[in-house]
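2 proteins. here.
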Amino acid sequence: MLYVVMVLVLVLLQYSYFGFMVGSARGKYGVKAPAVTGHEMFERHYRVQQNTMEQLIIFVPAILLFAHYVHAISAAVLGLVFLIGRQIYGMAYIKDPKSRGLGFIISYLASHVLLAGVLIGVVIKLI
């Protein structure tokens, strides 16, 4: 379970970094709070952070449940795949939003493999 916790901390630090980048972009491109639009580059950073937050709602409980009901090391590995996918997504989105697909798919699949594994693991334990 320690590996899962380490991966979760890395994922949360990554999210925090994305938030820091939004703040930096806000200053760099002159987008005054509370506005969330105004300069395309600011909006790209903002969307990376927001999409990551949307994905975390699924990922965080999924990795914890998978670690508990299925296998902790496998959960940590899938968590690293999620982390890498989010990084690819973020870098691609900021460069060119049309290129975000690979990173999105990697992180989406990691989360949903975790979810499917939890479902299968729980059903097996029930029977």
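next one coming up
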Amino acid sequence: MTAQRTAAGRHVRARSRARRAAAATAAVVAGAVVVGGAAGAAVVTRLDGNITSVEVDALLGDDRPEEEATAEGSTGPLDILVLGSDDRSQLAEGGAGFGGDIGGGGSDTTLLVHLSQDRDRAVAVSIPRDSMVTVPPCGDPDDAGRERVAMFNSALAEGGPACAIATVEKNTDIRIDHFAVIDFDGFQDVVDALGGVEVCLPEAVQDPKSKLDLPAGVSRVSGEQALAYVRARYNIPGTSGSDIGRIGRQQQFLSSVVQEVTSAGILLRPDRLVRFLDAATNSLTTDPGLDSVGQLTQLAQSASGLRPDDVSFVTVPFEEYAPDPNRLQWAPEAEDLWASIRADAPLPGTEPEPEPAPAETAPPLTVSPGSIAVEVYNGTGEGGRAGEAQSDLQLQGFDVRVAGNADAGVLQGVRVSYPTGAEDAAETVAAAFPGANVVEDPSLQGVVVVTLGTGAPDVVEVPNRLGAEPLPDRSEPSAAIEARSASEDICEA
């Protein structure tokens, strides 16, 4: 990807987030403003002329995650990478100018926005700039042709959007469908066009570095104060000066932007709406797939049913990077997050509890656990399963005499073997293992044998159990991903 280096750019800041998180909802009403009449056509022409378009697909090559197959007539899920930039002065020059020292400020924050296939939810994932990740050979001229472990924002700062896309795809296996860049001035113009955005601080802040000067509680900010609010890293209560410290505040700001854009005050005021769209598009650089009001409107119309409740802001789960405590790395739970996006599924830990299946009418168990001798053998390949089953059966009164191992990988599920004439006792044992296969084994004498195979379930309570002590919960819950809904009160942490 050596060509990617010449298609580079330095991109920055969470302002990009504010623009992109609102874009899907804001553009949804663009059609209402611009359809019909000569005045509408003039607005469309002006807005189209505002957007800068840059093609980067050729720089990405063919070694990319596969595009998701979608059913005929379906919109398909979309993943949009949102970047920030101090200065877009060179972006208008096209691919060859999409590089060099743009703005000199480097890249700070990136947002990956996922729109579900059914457009019933959106997830905006903050990627901390200090994340140590694998960067493809697209950002460092001295490391040509080799991957390297480096800070995530080095890909953005040295290799531009093409390298940023390649880095995200390399580390998440998620194919990026579109990208968008917004500059600092554009961010301020967008907020001003909204008439300001409400923010909330637990304590008064006077930060000379960012020039943020706000009282405690709710304030409506615009222009420079809005930019200072999302950029401030020091002298903020609860913030250590790291990039992580401000991500929560930025997500709070985005929630407020989404609420503002979806409010009737914007949707029912064409003058304010046009000012907002004019500022937003004038600040925007995208790929050719999103470089016109018509394309943005089409995308937004597909997501017109989204409400603030349906928009979630999350941060990539992270942990300390051992070689350098001033850096961080993605925690193992990050893969659960990326997997949910690849599968177009709800965030881990947010799925509603499944409805219990209707209970099947089963014949009553006629043999008490206390009169059944049991042996348990583990063929799952997972250590300790026989001992766990033994303990859980003993809690219910079964006489479990042996817990040992069987050949792993030979059996699927659970087999309950019983001696001739002990079928009723086997049915009581099998009730502790949903879906167990019950088989007669004339070679057995006075004992029911349980063999756990691959995928064997944990022990459950039998209806005629003895004792009242509850069984331990041996399930491994999915690691929940902390998310902020765009509908939350802005003063909530």
